[in-house]
Specification:
Structural class: alpha/beta
Distance between the termini: 129 Å
Strand order of the largest sheet: 1-5-3-4-2
Number of strands: 7
Radius of gyration: 48 Å
Length: about 375
């Protein structure tokens, strides 16, 4: 079985000068691993975590320290936050990464901790905050609200949000999403925290929370009003989903084709009635005992109004039909007398008289 390694053992016995006296101006630009008394370490005042939470998973720190703490000197920290000198009274270093390990050492009674000192982390306020933020994000220790606060705090260290986004490698939209969570009331934010900590079993999802935070005027609403607005948004989503589902189902259901109404007429002899014979409509001027019928029309039903394009098409077809019939009539008859006899055999007297008048008019 592999032997567990204690970080403090790698350092050996702490040297007498491993701790700088309070107020030292010494600055460490590169990592230097040293022992520091737990009581001389100040947890990061700007730690993005709101609370350290349950420390039972770190109880073994009393016997073994598996990872060092990242700290900056008092002098480097005060260069950034000169107004916090009173807060640092009695401390030599500020813990940037490892605040939970420090809290566990205090709780379980570890007198000293192995620390990596690196003041380059404190080259700017944004850099100091980003170092703490990155560690917590990598460990997934931050809930969505804590992360949002950390991001907004980092952005605030820049003249503009655009400069912050460019410097930190973020996008404006990504920053805005996190800002939207901070527009919610603490009671609503608590639901977001609960959702994250229970794996989605309870609370409010981050997606729904961000949408709620983007509503115009949400900051001026009370917690009760924000929750009512959340219900309204959920209702809108439900209606939209139902409509989308109905549209998808409709698109998959084929529309039955409607059989076109027949416009063809068939010649029948009404003098020979029979079962199931279609309704008839007499053709004016016919004396042959035949009638044009439309089999799709019920008795007494009106004929459908023809469309203009149908009328034009039928007119052209009619003209061609008449022209062909005249040529055929001329071919079969060898003189005016035979032609007149043929017309008389096929036309009623009224129709024959009308044709004669038209022919006389043409001649004149």
């Amino acid at each position: 079985m592999a032997r567990r390694v204690n970080v403090s053992d790698l350092l050996g016995t702490p040297p007498p000068d491993s701790e700088n006296p309070e107020g030292t101006e010494k600055s460490e630009k590169a990592d230097r691993l040293i022992h520091v008394k737990t009581s001389r370490l100040l947890p990061n005042p700007h730690n993005p975590r709101d609370e350290v939470g349950d420390l039972s998973d770190l109880s073994s720190i009393q016997e073994i320290q598996r990872q060092s703490l990242l700290v900056v000197t008092r002098a480097a920290y005060l260069d950034l936050y000169p107004k916090e000198s009173e807060k640092l009274r009695g401390y030599d270093y500020v813990v940037v990464n490892g605040c939970r390990r420090h809290a566990a050492a205090v709780k379980y009674g570890r007198d000293q901790l192995a620390c990596a000192v690196n003041d380059s982390v404190a080259r700017s306020r944004a850099a100091l905050r980003r170092a703490a933020y990155d560690e917590n994000v990598e460990r997934r220790d931050l809930d969505p609200i804590e992360e949002a606060k950390a991001v907004v705090a980092i952005v605030a260290e820049y003249p503009t949000a655009k400069e912050a986004a460019e410097a930190e490698g973020w996008t404006g939209a990504w920053i805005s999403q996190r800002k939207s969570l901070l527009k919610l009331r603490p009671e609503v934010q608590a639901l977001v925290r609960s959702h994250a900590r229970t794996g989605g079993e309870t609370g409010l999802s981050i997606r729904a929370a961000r949408r709620l935070g983007s509503v115009k005027g949400i900051e001026e609403m009370s917690a009760e009003q924000q929750l009512r607005e959340l219900e309204r948004l959920a209702s809108e989503d439900a209606v939209k989903k139902a409509a989308d589902r109905q549209a998808r189902q409709s698109s998959k259901t084929p529309t039955p084709a409607t059989a076109p109404r027949s416009t063809e007429f068939t010649a029948v002899n009404p003098a020979q009635p029979g079962p199931g014979r279609p309704s008839v409509t007499a053709v004016a001027g016919s004396s042959s005992g035949f009638t044009a019928v439309n089999p799709d029309l019920a008795d007494g039903a009106a004929l459908p109004e023809p469309r203009s394009e149908d009328v034009a098409g039928h007119a052209d077809a009619g003209e061609r039909l008449v022209s062909d019939a005249v040529r055929e009539l001329v071919r079969l008859t060898d003189g005016p007398a035979r032609m007149a006899d043929a017309l008389a055999d096929h036309l009623a007297p009224e129709a024959l008289h009308a044709v004669a008048e038209r022919l006389l008019a043409r001649v004149q």
